[in-house]
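Two quick folds needed for the group meeting slides. Do the first one here.
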Amino acid sequence: MPTLARRSFTLALMGGLAAPLLLRAHPLRAQTDAVADLRRAALDLPQLHAILVQRGDEVILAEAPRGRGLDRAANIKSCSKSLLALLLGTAIARGEVPSLSARLGDVAPDLIPADATQGVADLTMNDLVTLRGGLQGTSGGNYGAWVSSPNWVAYALRQPRIAPNGGRMIYSTGTTHVLGAALVTATGTTLRDLARERLGAPLGIDIPDWTRDPQGFHFGGNEMALTPQAMLSVALLMRDNGRYGDAQVIAPDWVTASRQVQTRSPFSGLGYGLGWFLSDTGWIIARGYGGQVIAAHPDRGLALAITSDPTQPARSEGYFGALMRLIDGPVLALA
């Protein structure tokens, strides 16, 4: 992808050069107006730090009115969960994890404390990646006590059961942290090295080191950092069925499975597949606290990345709702 300047945007004009000017004027004006409308709508959002939108092979909007700009890493918060899901896909494709139905008790039995909640050994990789672990969540009001504990994995697996394994969606970073630790156990390498080898290298992006728990496991589902341009590369990967450039980075069947709704968020109502939110309008979305977004619309050939103020909430009825109106409105209007 070409280097993008801070606070600049590029419009790709379409239409045959040989066509008479009068025949081309109105379509071109409409496209120019659509990008201008998107730019105005995006810059009117005070929490927004950066936005990149690509249609086909052309980046048509690249703006960073606030924050760290387009080429400096920002904390992507829970967008990390969606990248973790891609790493699970690579482990299954390589036979390091037998399948989505593999049990935690078989993949990583040593992670399970002696006083774990009954049934956690039977949790499948599918239960973990779809946030259907059945245990009380460690996010929201429970987050501080969890990350202050001496063993994050054990703490998550001791939480009281509030639903059956594979039942309703319970948003919990503890669940994805257990998944990350299971991946480390199964592959014999760190989550950071997995991310760099299987996503960073093929996408040509840098994935800096990030937070580890007291046992040395990298945070599975939070605190990763990427530049907005790197986030856009991930969005393109999902848009293009796991391909990036000439490389098939993620198996196509994993991307297809990721787009199948398995549960729904009790907060936003969005569907949820293998670590990715799914909108009824065709978007596949990674969502992080504060309004961090990686999104792709395969049917419309669109990919986007948004970073926002990571210290402010982005509730479904608030700022995240405004972001959804942006991508369902002005962004989709570009296709």
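Then this one, please, same format:
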Amino acid sequence: MAITMNHLIVPATDRTTAATFFADLLGLRVAPQAGPFAPVRVNDDLTLDFDDRRDPQPGHYAFLVDDDTFDAVMERLQSGSADYGSGPMSGWDREINHLGGGRGVYVRDPNGHSYELFTADPA
């Protein structure tokens, strides 16, 4: 049997705000509340479940995306006010990187989490 990640709980000070930020970033939608969670289905196998927590510790969540998705994300970022940049060493410089021969960007959400989106595996 292959191993597939099914869901991941993302701590947030406000689950609805955090889920909406993430869904808007990737052009997804927030599903109806499921128990205490504000779920966002990323693909057929993975859902991020945003959960209210006091003082959530920032996490890092990385996603390999296709070029069309990356372009759409960059359009939303360039027209919005979210912090984004080329990488941890450069801060939120509103630039992209070219690691692994593709394009990549880091985005900071209101809880301090960073979402990394890249078009080629940088490994």
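Slide caption for protein two: The chain has one domain: 7-48+60-118.
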